[in-house]
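Colleagues,

For the teaching module next term, I've prepared a clean inverse folding example: a structure given as tokens, and then the sequence designed for it. I'd like students to try predicting residues themselves before seeing the answer, so please don't circulate the second half yet.
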């Protein structure tokens, strides 16, 4: 394991059967992410080796979704905080280095356990007096919000995330069961409208100057969805290998 003093790890939690998506994730992450953001980068596969630019490939071995993630968080990663991605979450708008550097400093200093960074109507929030780059750091109302446990882009305290992983849980069971656990947990869940998930509008009381990034999930249960078309069209403007890959995407082939 790579030892480093940085506090945050970007973790892309991937499945080997979705290897078809790795190249697209890498292309658009590299285009829109700023690798000067102060963190470490891990691309986690099961058994396959993946060479993803800017990332260290770590491996969980096979097993249930929750068990694989728990192994990574306890054995392969030592950073205090995890910025969680999956391989089908493709960026399509630049991120702001200053936003993430500030967030990554504030989270440990204030002992934030979970900061949701994806906007969605399922969350009902209450404004606070704190802002990061004109975006309100809101508090999620646990009593009326759905999916308190979500696998969309979220900043997690690593130890707190481990506690949300029951043994032998597949992703959907984990979201259901951990949501129930989180409703009674005393720690607040925070929310920032940083990423427009699938183009979603902001839900918090942000300042007019607030700037957001955006990503789209490009698959549902292993099948590419309609979001893939715009990404494939952009890849068609690239080199020969990118054009070949884009044509495969446009066929909307099953991933498995």
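(Answer key — instructors only)
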């Amino acid at each position: 394991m790579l030892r480093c003093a940085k506090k945050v790890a970007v973790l892309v939690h991937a499945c080997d059967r979705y290897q078809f998506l790795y190249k697209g994730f890498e292309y658009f992450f590299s285009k829109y992410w700023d690798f000067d953001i102060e963190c470490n980068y891990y691309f986690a596969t099961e058994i396959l080796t993946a060479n993803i630019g800017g990332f260290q490939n770590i491996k969980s071995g096979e097993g249930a979704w929750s068990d694989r993630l728990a192994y990574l968080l306890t054995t392969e990663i030592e950073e205090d905080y995890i910025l969680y991605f999956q391989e089908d979450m493709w960026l399509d708008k630049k991120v702001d280095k200053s936003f993430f550097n500030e967030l990554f400093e504030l989270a440990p200093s204030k002992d934030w356990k979970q900061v949701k960074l994806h906007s969605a109507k399922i969350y009902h929030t209450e404004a606070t007096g704190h802002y990061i780059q004109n975006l309100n750091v809101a508090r999620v109302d646990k009593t009326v919000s759905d999916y308190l446990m979500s696998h969309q882009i979220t900043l997690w305290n690593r130890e707190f995330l481990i506690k949300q992983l029951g043994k032998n849980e597949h992703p959907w069971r984990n979201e259901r069961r951990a949501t129930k656990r989180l409703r009674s947990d005393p720690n607040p869940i925070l929310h920032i409208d940083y990423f427009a998930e699938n183009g979603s509008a902001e839900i918090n009381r942000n300042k007019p100057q607030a700037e957001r990034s955006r990503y789209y999930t490009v698959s549902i249960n292993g099948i590419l969805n309609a979001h893939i078309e715009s990404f494939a069209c952009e890849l068609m403007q690239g080199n020969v290998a990118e054009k070949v890959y884009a044509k495969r995407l446009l066929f909307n082939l099953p991933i498995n």
